[in-house]
Amino acid sequence: MATILQTQIPYDPLVERNLPGIQPTDMQDWLHRDDAFAAQMRHRETLLTTRRDEVLALDPSAEPAAQELLDTVLQQLYPGADASITRPDGMQVVIDRSDPLGTLCLLAQEDFCILQKQGDEHVLTGAILCFPASWRLSEKFMRPLIGIHDTVDSYDDNIARRVQRLFDGIQPDRPLWRFNALWYQEAELFQPRSAEDPREIRDRGAARFLRTERQSLLRLPRTQAVVFSIHTYVLDVEQVPKPENPA
User: What Cα–Cα distance (Å) separates residue 130 from each residue in 102, 157, 168, 207?
Assistant: First the structure.
């Protein structure tokens, strides 16, 4: 197992928020790069090479959205890029437009999920997901939002309706974001787990690591697909501030 840790997180992951806990951000803050960049990118490349079928899925209907997403990320992180880019860690990446999600995997720390409106719901039609937090892409691929979240106890019909309205209302160039906080015994970033074998819920007292995801939502203007991006941070539990005792 790989142990890749950040030394800090650019928000307080322990602040409690009611679901869905969404707040606005801007395009300049859409994607993040942190002190674990080089190590996470090496791990992503290894996973793409050795476990591609587990970390990448793309329905043909989502190909135009995947191409638009690749262009958007290149413009954001590597403006002016042509046939290849050089990452901040010195690694060169060839821009393979025949494999947009595989290329995206090597450009940014974020995982990316593509959701497209089919009928009344958004459906997961493509993803590059190297760092799943106890779920499997194969079990969520081509499922609607309510099906994706059917194992989340707090994701009831009321939350489902609110989230669907949220997805319907997302505007291009006006991303939204939220975060979670998960306590883990292992630091490994690639933690797929079947919905039929749920992870034992762990509190802070039993955990060695805090895993938190900065999750963003962005609408692509041309294809109108919604992109759900996930930036994963992992801290040693000893680096996480302890809550103050009440007076």
Answer: 11, 29, 27, 22
User: Residue 49 is part of which domain span?
Assistant: 23-239
DSSP codes of every residue in 148-216: HTTT-TT--HHHHHHHHHHHHH--TT--EEEE--EEES---S-B---TTSPPPP--GGG-SEEEEEEEE
Q: How far apart are alpha carbons 107 and 227 in whole angstroms? A: 16
Looking at per-residue confidence, does 165 or 116 come out higher?
Answer: 116
84 bridge partner residues = 94
User: If pLDDT is split at 50, 70 and 90, which confidence band does 246 have?
Assistant: very low
Q: Is residue 56 part of a domain?
A: yes
HSE on the CB side for 222, CA within 13 Å? 11
> What pLDDT sits at residue 17?
74
Query: Does 219 score more than 80 pLDDT?
Result: yes
Q: What is the residue whose two structure tokens read 């996470």?
A: 40
The answer as to whether 60 is a domain residue is yes
Position 247 confidence tier, pLDDT thresholds 50, 70, 90: very low
Q: How far apart are CA 184 and CA 190, in angstroms?
A: 12
Picking from 129, 138, 123, the residue whose alpha carbon sits closest to that of residue 65 is: 123
In a domain, 6, yes or no: no
> Amino acid identity, residue 66?
A
- Alpha carbon 158 to its chain centroid, in Å, reads 24
Question: How many whole angstroms from its chain centre is CA 67?
Answer: 18
Is residue 54 assigned to a domain? Answer: yes
What is the arithmetic mean of pLDDT over 94-114? Answer: 98
Higher pLDDT, 164 or 102: 102
pTM score, whole prediction: 0.92
